[in-house]
Amino acid sequence: MENKTVFISRSEAETEAFAEKMAKELPPGSVLTLDGDLGAGKTVFSRGFARGLGITEPVSSPTYTIIQEYPLENGGMLFHLDLYRIANSASALAFGVDEFIDDPECYALIEWPERISDILPPGRISVCIRHLSDTEREITCERA
Ligand SMILES: Nc1ncnc2c1ncn2[C@@H]1O[C@H](COP(=O)(O)OP(=O)(O)O)[C@@H](O)[C@H]1O
Ligand SMILES: [Mg+2]
Fold this sequence. Notes:
alpha/beta; Rossmann fold; 7-stranded mixed sheet; 4 helices; binds adenosine-5'-diphosphate
């Protein structure tokens, strides 16, 4: 991936396709943080990303479960974390968050990453989704 890319998505399907392509290009061990207001498209992005990894199960935000695990065809996992209900990195570490963001065979998507900003791994990819209109979103991806 380039150090920084900005993509203008004009539909939910375009956001899914963008994330799907990104998943196919990234190696296992990749950690992505997802930022954006409610309704920006973090879950839509996650669904496309999962599809790019060959996952066929339905994907929804793990708001109540905090973590959702999806096995990959050739071993490894996709971990989808929603840290909204987690106060800080100490409570995240108490449930073993490091296991999910530090596995070279697995991918991690992290919603509400600011909850654990002090322990996020270097080399992660920050994905910010900004609402432009009802159907348009600006998606900025950057190496952190
Ligand atoms: N270009 C777009 N990309 C992503 N979602 C879009 C787009 N245009 C409209 N939407 C709508 O925005 C909503 C995004 O919801 P969701 O992914 O659940 O948001 P979040 O997880 O960030 O709260 C969906 O209802 C989707 O249909
Ligand atoms: Mg969501």
